[in-house]
């Protein structure tokens, strides 16, 4: 399993990454606090996380763990020092700054594509409307980047306690550690991951309910299906074909990214929250794909551009680029 360790680059490039990440985070932090979808919900977290925390703590250990206690603790701490509005601004700034900086400095040779990645709507919205997920991605990437093992374990372990989608991502991460430890062949890795995906896809919502997670008891999640038209499925099938055509050596080194693709495709029509899970791991997939070679590299470039344009095209002209509070009315 290949570790996603950012390359060193020059001091000038690092300074440029810091500046770009700062501008990116400052802009997102400066958006209207209550002008976007779900912001009122996050303001309620900023005001009442202590009450929510106590409610889950009084119920059961499994309900407490599966209902994002670290997110609640973060809000409890911030609410003691800042207003609810400033709490949101601080969360947005630090999560968007750290994630964008780690992405931008990862592969200097591909700086243009790295900027493209952090501007993709499915990445950008995690610091606009899905703030918990944005913080979870930040924690996971901090763990993914650290060479010091205790900190890697700490940050990766904290991610699902901020956003529940990382229970799936961490499960895939641990599965890949097992694959590497026992030197499982690439073919069997595929088979096992596909099997895990189908089982979790079929039982995911039931399991969430059994563990006391709020997603399991939500009629919205239980009845929504995958929520996709099938076009995203077709796009990522094409992407996966190109990814897997790179060969066994590439797949062995990047099987964590491959497992995220396999899990997403195997659960697309089964697990209601599969798109959110995939969004949590999408940057891992995109960064791994920068290692493609020959015609596959250029095919991936074309897919990046197509995906970027097709994601942004329907959002232009909408309030808040489709994320404004008016869009939900």
UniProtKB/TrEMBL annotation:
The chain crosses the membrane at residues 12-31, 87-107, 128-147, 153-179, 191-211, 223-243, 255-271, 277-295, 302-323. The keyword Transmembrane helix applies. It comes from the Bacteria. Keywords: Membrane, Transmembrane, Transmembrane helix. This is EpsG family protein.
């Amino acid at each position: 399993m290949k570790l996603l360790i950012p390359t060193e680059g020059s001091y000038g490039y690092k300074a440029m990454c810091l500046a770009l990440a700062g501008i990116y985070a400052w802009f997102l932090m400066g958006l209207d606090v209550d002008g976007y979808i779900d912001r009122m919900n996050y303001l309620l977290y900023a005001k009442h996380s202590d009450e929510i925390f106590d409610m889950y703590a009084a119920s059961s250990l499994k309900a407490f763990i599966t209902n994002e206690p670290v997110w609640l603790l973060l809000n409890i701490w911030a609410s003691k020092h800042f207003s609810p509005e400033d709490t949101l601004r601080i969360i947005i700034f630090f999560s968007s700054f750290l994630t964008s900086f780690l992405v931008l400095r990862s592969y200097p040779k591909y700086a243009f594509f790295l900027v493209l990645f952090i501007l993709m709507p499915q990445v950008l919205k995690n610091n606009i409307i899905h703030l918990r997920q944005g913080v979870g991605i930040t924690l996971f990437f901090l763990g993914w980047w650290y060479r010091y093992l205790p900190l890697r374990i700490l940050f990766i372990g904290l991610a699902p306690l901020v956003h529940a989608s990382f229970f799936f991502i961490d499960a895939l991460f641990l599965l890949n550690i097992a694959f590497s430890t026992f030197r499982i062949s690439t073919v069997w890795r595929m088979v096992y991951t596909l099997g895990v995906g189908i089982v979790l896809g079929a039982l995911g919502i039931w399991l969430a309910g059994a563990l006391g997670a709020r997603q399991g008891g939500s009629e919205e999640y239980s009845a929504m299906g995958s929520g996709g038209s099938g076009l995203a499925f077709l796009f990522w099938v094409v992407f996966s074909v190109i990814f897997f055509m790179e060969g066994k050596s590439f797949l062995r080194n990047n099987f964590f990214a491959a497992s995220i693709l396999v899990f997403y495709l195997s659960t697309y029509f089964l697990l209601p929250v599969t798109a959110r899970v995939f969004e949590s791991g999408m940057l891992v997939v995109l960064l791994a794909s920068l290692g493609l070679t020959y015609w596959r590299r250029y095919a991936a470039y074309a897919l990046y551009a197509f995906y970027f344009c097709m994601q942004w095209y329907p959002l232009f002209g909408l309030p808040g680029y489709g994320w404004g509070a008016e869009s939900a009315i």
